[in-house]
Structures are given as C-alpha cells and as structure tokens.
Amino acid sequence: MTTPVPAGGFPPPSDLVELPLDEVYRWLEPGPVVLMTTRQGSRANVMTLSWHMMVEFVPPRFACVISDADHSAKALNATGECVIAVPAAGLLDRVVAVGNSSGRSEDKFAEFALTPLSADAVGAPLIGECLVDLEAKVIDASLADRYGIRVLEVVRAWRNPTIADTRTVHHRGHGVFSVDGATVQTASQMP
Ligand SMILES: Cc1cc2nc3c(=O)[nH]c(=O)nc-3n(C[C@H](O)[C@H](O)[C@H](O)COP(=O)(O)O)c2cc1C
Q1: Which of 22, 121, 151, 172 could form a disulfide with 176 if both were Cys (CB 3.0 to 4.6 A apart)?
Q2: What does the pLDDT read at residue 155?
Q3: What does the pLDDT look like over 8-27, one tens digit per residue?
C-alpha cells in the first residue's frame, strides 16, 4: 500500500535548518536506531534500521544492511535514494511499530503519524518529527545481493532544532533498547 505522494509533492520543511555535512558523522557514529524513507514514483515508505555504520567523515558515507525481504529494498534498488532520519527517544514506540509492519500492506506515515516533507536532492521524504534528516544516495551496491549491504553518501542534511530532548535510542536485541545517557568529554584530538 505504502503512502501516496500528494499531486504537488510533499510540503516543504519549515522548521528544519541545514546541518553541515562535516557534522553528519556525529549523529550516526553512536549507532542510533534510525528510520529510512524511500519513494518510488507516487508512493513513499518508511522502515526502521539499526544495522548501519559510518565509513567516511567527509563526504559523509555510511554502510547499511537492508534485507531483500523489506519492501523498502525494491524502492531503494530502483531509485538509489533514501532519507535516513534519526528519531529521538520520544518516538520509540512509533519506531518499533514502523519496524514491525510493512509498506506492502500499510501506509506507515499515516498509521504512525509521521509527517513526510519534501527533500531537496532526493525524492524520498524527510520526516518532520525526527532530529536529523540525511538525504542519501547509494554509491556502491556491489555487496547487496550477498549481504544486503549498501554504501551511501549523504548529499544534504537537516536538523530539527524544535525537539528539546535529543536523546537517541540503541537496539540491544529482542525488543530491548537503551536510551542515551551521560556523555563524557575526554582529551581526544579526534575531529
Ligand atoms: C529496532 C529495529 C531495527 C531494525 N533494523 C533493520 C535493519 O538494520 N535492516 C533491515 O533490513 N531491517 C531492519 N528492521 C526490520 C525492518 O524495519 C522491517 O522489516 C520493516 O517492517 C520493513 O518495512 P518495509 O517492508 O515497509 O520496507 C529493524 C526493525 C526493528 C524493529
């Protein structure tokens, strides 16, 4: 079923500010559970994703595993584009629900009250309720058939400054999640 794209496209974002590309890795490096949106023609979809990792700072590149069993894989294969949206802990129930249902039979944006907004460089929608939205393009799918692995490059990034609680969530398996706790500043010289 997926989600119908309105005739004039999704509404533009109004609350989002641009996130510099050299800050993108700081959002994915801790391994948060994320949402991945896709769009194929006049239909959009969203799935939950936790198997991802950074592979380059700038341009920001990351790898992720997307099963062929996911309806989203078809749109990603067809378009080579997606949006990776980082939800805050407050969205956890919806993130789990998105990850336990399929766009094959459901309009997940409507069902789970997520707001699709128009992106700039890709057709897949941003998600208005998320902390960060990363517009991404597949740059290497050579391991997709064997392992489901794709490498993607973030071409434009957005941050939602209206969300006060910026804690993200991390999947520990079997429905158990941890929520960001204290951070510790060390003398690291890493950028
Ligand atoms: C916490 C969580 C993490 C998940 N991580 C992944 C993942 O990394 N890769 C993947 O292919 N599916 C993952 N899934 C499963 C997909 O989100 C799920 O199959 C989804 O319903 C696919 O939706 P679709 O058929 O509309 O594409 C995860 C699900 C949950 C709940």
Answers
A1: 172
A2: 98
A3: 999 999 999 999 999 999 99
Ligand 1 mean position to 121 CA, how many Å?
24
Q: What's the whole-number average pLDDT of the chain?
A: 97
Domain layout of the chain by residue ranges: 3-172
Residues of the chain with pLDDT under 70: 190-191
Atom of ligand 1 nearest to the CA of 67: 11
Q: Which residues line ligand 1 (CB under 6 A)?
A: 33, 45, 47-51, 65-67, 70-72, 96, 99-104, 171
Contacts of 142 (CB under 8 A, 6+ apart): none
Ligand 1 atom closest to Cα of residue 46:
26
Joined together, the tokens standing for residue 75 give 């749109």
* CATH number listed for the domain at residues 3-172: 2.30.110.10
d(CA 12, CA 128): 10
